[in-house]
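**User:** You know discrete backbone vocabularies at least as well as I do. Would you mind producing a protein record, from residues through to fold? Write it directly below this note and I will take it from there.

**Assistant:**
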Amino acid sequence: MRRDSVLSLIGLAKKAGKVASGEFQTEQAVKRGKACAVIVSAEASENTKKKFRNMCTFYEVPFHVYGKKEELGAAIGCEFRASLAILDHGLAASVEKRLENAQNGGSKENGYQGS
């Protein structure tokens, strides 16, 4: 249930036009100061995770590893997505709260790894 609520919120953010997805758009959103949170798929390469983790640390953007590429893609109407950025503070806070609840609920097996 928690997993669905996270993905549902990401879908809502996409409908509101508040998601940058894909490696290039996510990176640009972070560097331009527009990203309020970054989510990278648990299936992304270690290099991709490290790149975004370091970038988010430098630019002080919350970073999360969550879900499968197919799930993140489906949430925003795409086939696969390894990374995305939430561009709205309120939506990002809601997503982060649900990610935190997923982590506290012992959902590591579902692919959640907090920053």
About this structure: DSSP finds five helices and four strands in the chain. The two ends are 22 Å apart (CA to CA). The mean pLDDT is 90.
